[in-house]
């Protein structure tokens, strides 16, 4: 399946049904009066998060979506049928950005200005919603209201109104969909560090693997089972290069997918010319990109130790320990599985600590008392960031993390 993580589409709510002009005509009722019903409401366009989807491939060729129109009002004051809503399924982790409503006559986006007061949405390009949970919904193009039938225009001065109201058009909006993978652990490293081999070793994922850089061109997801049997999603992020934070080597496209991770597993190619320089390159790119990636809890592992002598591995580990604050450097081989059990025990422990910190932050937020003079509750993103910082600070302290 081809991996598509960005798409732009146009959505349109259904038009409301026209109101009806009609008069009551019954035997023995010579002046029955107006009886035209109101038109039905137009259908709305709604996005729904689906955990079975992993790509925006469905939107590669389909760019325009419209909900059904409402039915026309009927005689005897009957309201027209409501138009059927259009449900569009997207992967969990999809962000929805507003690119502006559209002028029906010209097909051009309508600027959001004071002259357009009915537009209550944020400025173009602003975030409309973040669909992270299965079944979560977001209405992005409401349907138009049904037009009033002529019975609504009955008055003391007009006992037989002969006009009704047309239905209102549905909202038309251009939106941008952007997928950020929902993985708790991100596997990062330079090209050819063995990330795809590692995720295939740890999970049942079968990514493309070859002995040359840039084999992986799209993120791969794999579910790794804890000793308890629970599954955790790992993401194999395509190899980053120097300048990735500036977009080089599709850097922005790749770095975006680790923004939601709770911890990073940094693989270093032990057979590289200078593994320490490789480590520093990735750290610099994470720091330059921002989004707190450089402060994300991280485990460091030398990969491909089966191709090295023991003294060579010792020397690389010692050099890496000098530049990463003396943290433990794991020694693994994704091919032979050597050292992976110890590494994964550390992953589960750090992940549990991070989840506990996040839960504690959320509980503290729920217990906070807010009044008009205190700031609003922090966003879930702020909570995650603070929890990750707290976990990383504890792990980096000399007491909880002696140098190995």
Automatic annotation (TrEMBL):
Region described as Disordered: 106-132
Sequence ranges assigned to domain OBG-type G in this UniProt record: 183-352
The entry's keywords: Cytoplasm, GTP-binding, Hydrolase, Magnesium, Metal-binding, Nucleotide-binding
InterPro entries recorded: G_OBG, GTP-bd, GTP-bd_Obg/CgtA, GTP1-OBG_CS, GTP1_OBG_dom, GTP1_OBG_dom_sf, OBG_GTPase, P-loop_NTPase
Principal place of residence: cytoplasm
One Pfam family it belongs to: MMR_HSR1
PROSITE patterns xref list: G_OBG, GTP1_OBG, OBG
Domain Obg: 1-182
Localization, UniProt: Cytoplasm
GO terms assigned for molecular function: GTP binding; GTPase activity; magnesium ion binding
One cellular-component annotation, GO: cytoplasm
Composition-biased stretches (Polar residues): 113-124
Residues annotated as signal peptide: none
Family that this chain belongs to: Belongs to the TRAFAC class OBG-HflX-like GTPase superfamily. OBG GTPase family.
The name this protein goes by in its record: GTPase Obg
Gene encoding the protein: obg
């Amino acid at each position: 399946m081809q991996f598509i993580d960005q798409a732009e589409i146009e959505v349109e709510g259904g038009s409301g049904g026209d109101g009806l002009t009609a008069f009551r005509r019954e035997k023995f009722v010579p002046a029955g009066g107006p009886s035209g019903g109101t038109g039905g409401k137009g259908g709305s366009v709604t996005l729904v998060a689906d955990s079975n989807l992993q790509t925006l491939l469905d939107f590669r060729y389909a760019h325009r979506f419209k909900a059904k129109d409402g039915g026309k009002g009927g005689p005897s004051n009957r309201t027209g049928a409501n138009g059927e809503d259009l449900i569009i399924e997207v992967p969990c982790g999809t962000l929805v950005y507003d690119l502006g409503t559209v002028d029906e006559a010209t097909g051009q986006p309508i600027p959001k200005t004071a002259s357009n007061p009915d537009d209550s949405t944020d400025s173009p390009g602003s975030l409309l919603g973040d669909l992270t949970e299965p079944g979560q919904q977001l209405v992005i193009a409401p349907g138009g209201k049904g037009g009033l039938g002529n019975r609504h225009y009955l008055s003391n001065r007009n006992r037989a109104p002969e006009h009704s109201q047309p239905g209102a058009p549905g909202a038309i909006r251009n939106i941008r969909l952007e997928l950020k993978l929902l993985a708790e652990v991100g596997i990062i490293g330079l090209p050819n560090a063995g990330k795809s081999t590692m995720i295939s070793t740890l999970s049942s994922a079968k990514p493309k693997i070859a002995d040359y850089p840039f084999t992986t061109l799209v993120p791969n997801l794999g579910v790794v089972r804890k000793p308890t049997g629970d599954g955790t999603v790992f993401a194999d992020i395509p190899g980053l290069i120097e300048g990735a934070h500036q977009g080089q080597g599709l850097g922005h496209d790749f770095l975006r997918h680790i923004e939601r991770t709770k911890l990073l597993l940094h693989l270093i190619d032990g057979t590289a010319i200078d593994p320490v320089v490789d480590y520093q390159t990735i750290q610099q790119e994470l720091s330059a990109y921002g989004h707190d990636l450089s402060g994300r809890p991280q485990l460091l592992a030398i990969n491909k130790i089966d191709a090295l002598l023991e003294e060579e591995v010792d020397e690389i580990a010692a050099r890496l320990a000098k530049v990463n604050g003396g943290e433990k450097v794991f020694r693994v081989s994704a091919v032979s599985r050597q050292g992976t059990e110890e590494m994964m025990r550390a992953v589960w422990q750090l992940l549990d600590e991070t989840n506990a910190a996040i839960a504690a932050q959320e509980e503290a937020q729920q217990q906070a008392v807010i009044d008009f003079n205190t700031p609003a509750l922090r966003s879930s993103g702020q909570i995650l960031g603070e929890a990750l910082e707290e976990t990383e600070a504890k792990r980096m302290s000399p007491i909880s993390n002696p140098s190995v």
